[in-house]
Every structure is written in structure tokens, then in C-alpha cells.
Amino acid sequence: MKNFAPLLFSLFCILSANASALDYFNVNADKVNVRKGPGQNWKVVAQVDAGQLVLETQRAGQWSEIFFVKNSNRKFQGWIFNAFLTPQQLDGSEKKQPYQLDVSALKPVCTDRTVVGIGSLCYLDVSFVVTFEDESTRQTKINCWADFVVPGDKEVVPIQTSDTQLYHVLGGKAEGVMRLNAGMQRRVDSEGLNLAYYNCAVE
């Protein structure tokens, strides 16, 4: 991958007069959607893969507006779910995270709820363990998300869900299980709900 840091640094200098905070990040997953606005309902304008260098120009909750260059200096700007971003220094080295995060999950579970007319209730239980370098006692926010794929009558239907919860850190460690719900409008069994991707991040 070409090093576009000099071009992004030039943009940084231009924008710094009009923005309070600009930071470099690396994308930490493949095929991440970049959208026209800060939310899942906005149109997808591009996709980025792991290792892509981006410049964050503003942040709105869990979404970041980014600028990046790819495909022979073609410039893009849009919004990305900021759990997919890892801070990076200008010299190209990633900032070391003061923790280690391990995430695991079993297959999705669907419960038939057609009796009450709301389709199936489907969910994924995501387990995580985060270990910090220091052993202080405090609270930390954990954000987990998942992408599901449901075969439809005419096309595949994507479903995205996420949740953020506050956990106690005791002795430098926090662990738990977060249930991510994907409510369905029709009857679906566990075999019909395919898990495409899941992960967690420390906020």
C-alpha cells in the first residue's frame, strides 16, 4: 500500500484552522462501509480495508467523518463507525493500546415468536475479556457489534446491531457477555440467520 501520509498531512494543515481536533487512524477490519452521513441509514459511498490510513475531521457519537486517499490518489470523504478505527501517529507507528481485548461468540440463536405476531427473536451472545496494563479499579465502556445476513425471497438482507455498556474494571480486568439483539419481521430459524462479522472495542 502506498504511503499517503504526506498528502493527508497537507490536508491536516489546511483544515486545522477550521477544526478543533484532527487525528490519524488506521482502519482495523476489511470491507468496512463508508457512508454519506453518520448512521447506518445513509448511502454507502466507499469501502475501506484493514490498514487504510484515514484522517478524522469530526466525530458524532459512534461515527467519525474521515478523509482518505486510495486507488491512485483518488480522494474520498465520508462517515465510518469509529470502532473500526485505531489511532496512529504521524510517523506511521500505531499508538500502543493500554489493554488487551479478547472476543468470542457462538452461533446466533433464534426463538420462534410468530404466535404473538412479531416474527422471530434472534440474538448473539458475545463474550469479551479486557485486560489493562495497570491494575486500577474503575469503569470502562465496551461497545460490541455484529453483522448478520438473512436470505430473502429476492435478495440477501443485511442486519446490523450494536450495543454499548458500562463495566467495572477490577484488578485491571473486565469481562462479560453482551447480548446483541436482531429483531426479525418474519419467521427465521437459527440456520437461516448467518453471522457475517462481530467484534468489540473499548471506548
Automatic annotation (TrEMBL):
Residues 1-21 form the signal peptide. InterPro entries: SH3-like_bac-type (IPR003646). Pfam families: SH3_3 (PF08239). Keywords: Signal. Residues 31-85 form the SH3b domain. The keyword Signal applies. This is SH3b domain-containing protein. It comes from Neptuniibacter caesariensis.
